[in-house]
Amino acid sequence: MKNTRLPLFAFVFLICMNVFSQEVEKTEETETAIEKVLKNVSLSGSIDTYFRQNLGGPNGEDAIAPNTSFTNQNGFALGMANLVLSFDTEKVGFVADLVVGPRGDEATFNSPFYNNGSSNIINQLYVYWNVTDKLTFTLGNFNTFLGYEVISPVGNFNYSTSYMFSYGPFSHTGIKADYAFNDDWSALFAVMNATDQTESNLNNSYTLGAQIGYKGTYLNFLYGRQGAYVEPTFQVDLTTGFDLTDAFFLGLNSTYNTTENAAFYGVALYPQYSFSDAFALGLRAEYFGEIEGGAGAIGGYDPEGNANVVAFTLTGSYAIGGLTIKPEFRIDTTSEDTFMDSNLDPSKSLSSFVLAAIYSF
Length: 361
Description:
The protein has 3 helices and 18 strands. The protein is mainly β. It is globular.
């Protein structure tokens, strides 16, 4: 009788090896696919915290702060945690930008116009399509294209924010088209919900936006109803900046916003000087005015509802790897009795000191 065990064993062995080889190929293909995906994924973010104390005003339970600063807590306080996940291919991609903390709350959940409910941790959430090398469409929630400053302190030199930033738009939900004519000229056009209205269009009214750019100078426009029972808002805004030398930079922001008879307007200069790769010093000098209480930003008004403020903010910036330490001195002077002094008497001026720490990755 012939011994059939060896051929049978060889046959089974060959089948197992074939199956194993196929599984290895599938695993390698899966790993290759995952690697391709991961090459297009990036993760970044930051956390920030600070200490604040009034120098010419009350602290503790009577502490006050400018209505604008986004840095208005007394003593040691929290800023926000920011996590940005993005996926980018040659043609399409998305960005999910999430924030948690008081600074993020003020720009999302506590927006001047709408309560955004479950979207209060969303700073940005959008998809985009690079139709050509020159044309890109973006759909979703994205930070405003108006103004010089942004929500994340990583993108600003000064830690506290300007009046123009705090009372201009923070973000928009809609669709925009960016077009680059060449290396110098660009344009943007957008159709959006009312300002800072994230989840849905509650009033079934839309805001139009536009931008013209030339070599880092941007002229921005906004027009549309921002509420159910108000006249349309019109805003024009200019941002620009120049490297005057290798170490000296000068930025500029100017804006005008009007709704019927109420309006606010302002201008700010941002000179910054880098003493070394690690240390720089920057000043924000801002003038901000309101007509008939246009933004409700200043807090004190004459009988016609008019007021203005001059604010100087001097900020140092010292970088240690991913950590940036920012000591900051700020003085706000208003045309009306807006603040209180250390004796709790009405005052037109408030000075304060902030020490901020920002870690970015």
